[in-house]
Amino acid sequence: MSSNIQSPQIPLCIPSIKGREWPYIKECLDTNWVSSAGPFVERFEHEFKDYLGINHSIAVSSGTSALHLALIAAGVEPNDEVIVSDLTFIAPVNAIRYVGAWPILVDACNESWGMNPSVVKTFINGSCETLNGYLHNKKSGRRIGAIIPVHILGHPVDLNPIVEIALDHGLPIIEDATESLGATYKGNKVGTIGQIGCFSFNGNKLLTTGGGGMAVCHDSVLASRIRHLSKQAKKDPVESIHDEIGFNYRLTNIQAAMGCAQLERINELLASKKRIAQHYDLSFKPIPGITPMPRTDWSQSACWMYTVLIDSSVFGMDRHKVMQKLASAGIQTRPLWQPIQFSPAHDRAQFIGGTVSQRLHNNALSLPCSPDISKIEQDRVIEMIKNCTLSS
Fold first, then answer.
1. What is the average pLDDT value for the chain, to the nearest integer?
2. Distance between CA 157 and CA 358 in Å, rounded?
3. Residue 237 pLDDT
4. Is 154 within 8 Å of 180 (Cβ atoms)?
5. Pairing, β 128-131 against β 134-137
6. Contact (CB, 8 A) for 332 and 11
7. pTM assigned to the model
8. Which domains are assigned to the chain?
9. Strand partners, 106
10. Which in 46, 113, 214, 234 has the greatest CB count within 10 A?
11. Which among 343, 299, 325 has a CA at the least distance from the CA of 391?
């Protein structure tokens, strides 16, 4: 079958399918285990939790569904509020609304581009109060139900200050690690530090199943609740008896088979991303106005999506024009997400902080960084960026 879809000569981020994906998927087809039942689902869950060093993994249909289930399992209720990163893909904020809660959007910080711990601390200490044993927002009167720090683009949030204040007030932490599988924070893999961690296996992620996700946790009660809800809350293994409203959020055996093959190469994929980032870093160092995303000394970034800041006053061309110039040469790039504070879908959300999220959005550009990008392709991207400054 032919397609009219034109692929860029150098795509932004496509998967690396070089392992045992084909034989594992063929095994599913040969045995007719193609849906959410099948041996690869349990195998993928087991191997994933072993990789993270955590007690429980529940395979689900997407990172968004993992976040949705995590919020319910964590006890977030309608009309609660959830503290969440402002600079993020929209999924965690949508998931907050799925449960009838409201987001409190936290500005990014310059150090890591993630949730600013100082802003969280200032908000809780100055704008919240404890009523009947629960933390409440003085402005809205709503209960604070949880905190969702989002580890964006492969780099961890500075979690310790957030964990400390969350413990002080009994707030569960749900880590959105959908973009940062393999990253570590002070020696601990992201997703394993809070009460629940959520991962995505979308097509552009480090590890892909085409679509899918994983919720992970240390606590067996939380794990059982998440698993139960992901299976339409079916109480009886034979009879169609459902004890509450559940969801069809299960991963298929075919997707899990692909996940198993991808997970076998996780260290290779991480090493590839690191090499790509190092080559870009070295090449951009002498170019004024191009600043790579910071990588802090308290973390090990997964380098998932290589992103730079473009200072147009120094570089001579703004982010949008650079993106257009590269697109005309067949090079796919991507701007950073619009901060949620400006999203019409969430215009009733409270925002706390300054202008860091907005500045990063206005000036950041993600560059091609597929695990299998060749050095020749990378050098072409670098040369085109150099040409931008020469032609400006």
1. 97
2. 18
3. 82
4. yes
5. antiparallel
6. yes
7. 0.96
8. 18-261 (3.40.640.10), 265-385 (3.90.1150.10)
9. 85, 352
10. 214
11. 325
